[in-house]
What we know:
alpha+beta; Beta-Lactamase; 4 domains; 17 strands; rod-shaped
Amino acid sequence: MILHAWGCIGTRTGSKRTKIGYCLSNRAEKAVSDLRWEFVMDLANQSSFSEEPAHWKQLLRRTRIGLAVGHITENTFMAVDEAFAHDRGYKVDELVGKPILSVYAPEVQEEIKTRFQEVDRLGHLVYESVHQRKDGTTFPVLMKVAVIKNARGKPVSRVAYAHDITERKRAERVVRENEERFRLVAEVTNDILWDWDLTTDDHWWSPNAREKFGYDPVTEPHIEAWRSRLHPEDRGRVLRHLNDHLHSGERMYSDEYRFLLADGSYGTFSDKGQVVHDTKGKPVRMIGAMIDITSAKGAYATLEQAHARLQWLSRELQKAEEKERRRLSRELHDEFGQLLSALRLSLARVKEEVGKYSSTKGMLLRKNVMAATRTADRLFASLRALVRGLRPAILDEFGFIAALQSMAEEIREGTGLDCRLSVRPKGIDSIVGQELAGTLYRIVQELVTNVVRHAKATRVDIRLHYRERRITLVVKDNGRGGRFTVSKPGYGLRGIGERTELLGGQVEIRSSRGRGTTVSVTIPVDLLNRTYGSIGSGFPTTIVKVNRPSYGKKM
């Protein structure tokens, strides 16, 4: 019955193993091998088989497990079973009487002679070698050999169980290659790889963790070693996030936290992993990598501080610029305006006196006076435009909203464009402040000018809103849309974007052909209203998060 059972498991169909043979795991395969070897050893202890080669031949006709029996003195095959012969490309009768060394690859034959001596000395031996088929191809085998003695205790033959371990060797090679590949990845990458068994809480770190952490985490192969080193301010949040993730059924996990190092400092790490679930959907394992972003975070913080300083200096510069604009505007209006007014009055008096003369000389004088008067008028108009360009007087006299209303009225009267203004809430002038008012006024002026010149629109809406400590200015038209033109190099759309960015805000432009254009400018007012003191002494240390302008079209 034993022979029959093992014959069924080892049965071959053609040159292929049965499905049972293919499904054996490495552990099961070893168990089968051990049981077969016990069977062989039982036979070796039966003297009736050792005395008569015919008994072996009769027995091996019934087995299918890869058995061979050989003369101990002649080193030739006495008997082999069909499986042993078939694996090597022979028929059973072709191997009987053939030298045992003939089934070994040439390169191992000298070694096998030594193996034979060891078997004879020890009584049994297990070793790996390489067999050669009839066609010259080779394959690895696991050999279990025992010496068979007769009734008088004299060694007369050897019985061997040969197991083809090609698949096992291939699997071992794949494992070695994967391990080598993994080792190289772990050495080359800056990431710290980890593996967490969720059922036992065993935790593994890649070798480079020792260099990153300053201690050897292999000595603490438990997840608690990771938990205990989370920064106290991050621990609760991180563990809650991890627990929620494990119960969510999602595979990919990511987080960022501070982690205690050997020198007592904390490094900042970005942690990414993947959850492995069993067939019932239960999380059983997590594999991932910790990426050291300490330097990157420090550099980013430094960059943010530098950008905050640039913003602050820019705001101070704009304050100084607006202050200088107000001063120049007042001086031009007060001094040059008065001088031009006096000049025009004087020319009017000269014209009146010259009118008394009717001679040719008098006509010439009247002509010159009229030319001078027209020049003075043009100078006066240019002065008014210059003063208004620097800072409209209405901004200081009546406020920002009044200045926008005046602009809207002038647009309606001068171009026929339906220009509408919406402001929320009332009293927004006090929120905007003098410095920002001048910047916003010029932004509106530039955007509306673009609409008038290029959009071919019939309507433009100007909306100014304050919400959640942010001023939002929206200029929307119903024109052709699509393309943008920078009408002024100094304060075009690109200049609007750059100035807005330096104020900590952002610009968004949306446009589609035939559906008009919408430009939104958002500026955080709380940053502008802070008092930082003089430049260089009271520089703020607050890090300001800045959103870069999102331009819908190239300016």
